[in-house]
From TrEMBL:
<keyword id="KW-0812">Transmembrane</keyword>
<keyword id="KW-0472">Membrane</keyword>
<feature type="transmembrane region" description="Helical">
    <location>
        <begin position="12"/>
        <end position="33"/>
    </location>
</feature>
<protein>
    <submittedName>
        <fullName>Uncharacterized protein</fullName>
    </submittedName>
</protein>
<feature type="transmembrane region" description="Helical">
    <location>
        <begin position="138"/>
        <end position="157"/>
    </location>
</feature>
<feature type="transmembrane region" description="Helical">
    <location>
        <begin position="78"/>
        <end position="97"/>
    </location>
</feature>
<keyword id="KW-1133">Transmembrane helix</keyword>
<feature type="transmembrane region" description="Helical">
    <location>
        <begin position="53"/>
        <end position="71"/>
    </location>
</feature>
Amino acid sequence: MFLTIHATSAIVIGQAITNPIGAFLAGLASHYVLDAIPHGDEKKLDGLSLANMSWIATLDQTILLVNFLLLFHYKPHLLLTSAVIAAVSGAMLPDWLTAAHRLSEELDNKFTRVLHRLLDSLQNLHHYLHCRLIPYEIPFSLGLALQLVFLVGLWVII
Ligand SMILES: [Zn+2]
């Protein structure tokens, strides 16, 4: 799913779990749970060039930032607590690690080879949950609508 959905659901988690470590772990788990739900963009990044992937990641991060700015504007009771920050960090970590894994394929030096090997099993888990746990694909447009419904629901809860 898009980072906007992961991060917004993590805000809900950070509001419910006030312990930052628990919030981080719950945010991390939420990423994998949400990614397991068929959502139409599972294979969108497969086979893309690094430049195109960077472009999509930049767009995703920009939408995330706009969503956060709108949330803080329209939800004045929303506090940026350590639990919220921890939950959001945990929820976004798997995709950041995916980016590091992909970048480490492109840059060939001793550090990136070690990093790539360290991230391999996590990336395999991420890919398994994303694509193979529920091997059912929905069209990208339907996935987009589903993610929008999630976002609206999360906005109502926050
Ligand atoms: Zn993911």
